[in-house]
Amino acid sequence: MLTNRSKVVVNKKMSFWERIYLPAIAGGLLITIKHFFRKKTTIDYPKEVREYSQIYRGQHVLKVDENGAERCVACGLCAVACPAEAISMTAAERAPGEENKYREEKYAAIYEINMLRCIYCGLCEDACPKEAIFLTDILVPVSATRDDMIYGKDKLTEKHFNEVPIKKRQTEEVAAFKAETKNKDLRHNVLGKSDSF
Amino acid sequence: MVSGYLIYKAIIVVIVFLVGLGIAAYSTYAERKVAAFLQDRLGPNKAGPYGLLQPIADGVKMFMKEEIIPDVSNKFLFILGPSIAMLTACMTGAVIPWSTPLVINGVSYPLQITDINIGILYVFGVVSIGVYGIMIGGWASNNKFSLLGALRASAQMISYEIAMGLSIIALVMLTGTISLQEIAAQQSGWHWNVFYQPLGFIIFITCAFAECNRTPFDLPECETELVGGYHTEYSSMKLGFYLFAEYINMFISAAIISTLYFGGYNMPLIGRFVTDPNILSILGLVFFFGKIFFFIFFFMWIRWTVPRFRYDQLMHLGWRIFIPLSILNIVLTGLGILVFNK
Predict the structure, then answer these.
(1) pTM of the model
(2) Which of B193, B233, B308, B324 has the fewest Cβ atoms within 10 Å of its own Cβ atom?
(3) Is the ipTM, as predicted for this complex, more than 0.85?
């Protein structure tokens, strides 16, 4: 009796009006017709989209820096942190002349996230020392095959000058901390700055 | 003159047939929409504006589907079943008075295919043939579920036809005729039969639900128990015919309920504003269809509100409640006629 909503079942004899059922049916009809005019809960999905939470965690993005070079150094911390073991990668050494493609000497030649295994917890984002991986509010589209759901760098890496905004997810405290550090590496994640990074 | 009469009759037959089919097709759409709205959903809305092309898409789908006739079934009867169901469903529209006659160049054109003087008996006769469609189809499928569904359907229809007939007898005592045209004409103004026969109306509409195999009496095809009931083995357009026949029956039932109890094409007070008989006739048609659409909606409203009966409850209700009640109704009507000398 925590809620006071439980009803004790009594097998008493029904009265005449209860036995002819018609009042009960009329009551039922009244309830359903009220629903007929009620606002519908269904939304016309592709045309209108439900409002997402500010901190919604969807598809991952691999960030590039202000010159368009990949931030990821293939340290593997995200793969270690991942509770679903969805991330795998192969590291490679940067060749001379590739400085505009990769920010540091080491980079991820292959970087794959299995979107079917991923639980979208965001621990990879926490683990990343280079602020390279983030979860965005992009929905992961469905696919007919399992292979299509393993996302490689082609789908994950953002394009230079067409960066994926990720600032919405940061709390005020984190943003203030990052603004204080004045570290240019971390500037792309600062709250309130323009969306160019 | 005879050829002109034949052409006029042919035209009205074709119109009634097409309108019946059209309304049945859009009843399937309306059913899905009403169900959705009663459950706070939107229903089909992708095919055309508001999903209005949905029945056409469904029809194309029905025709395109692979047709499977089970090897062990009796093929002739298997095909005969849905044909009878569809035929009888389409035949009942013949005696319904859609409106008062149109007068063009002094010639009167009644908006009714035929005004036979035993209209009610004709409807009952044709409707009771309809049960053969279900019975034959269910038996010919050679499937336990189909057979059970067919048995249920026939038992249910036979038992509810008795109560329905008895409730009509009280109405016939009151009106003194069994021609639907005369019954409709008698109910001008506020003299709707539902005010004189409220008990008879409740019995009649409940039996109409049972005759149409609609919830709460949809035991012949209750999908939770019998897969699909009598049409389990049917596919493609033969299944479509069964489903379609159900919706045509619903349309005809709504028309007959409106004619017998709700004044048919009559509307109170309209005679004060309009006097031209032709305009009155067209307005009568509009009112009649308004009443029909309301009852079709009512059928759907009931379906998505009231849960299904158990089979023993259904039989108990039919034989031990409705038949005595309708006999009581006959006695009360007789007393009323004697006392008020109507």
Answers:
(1) 0.77
(2) B324
(3) no
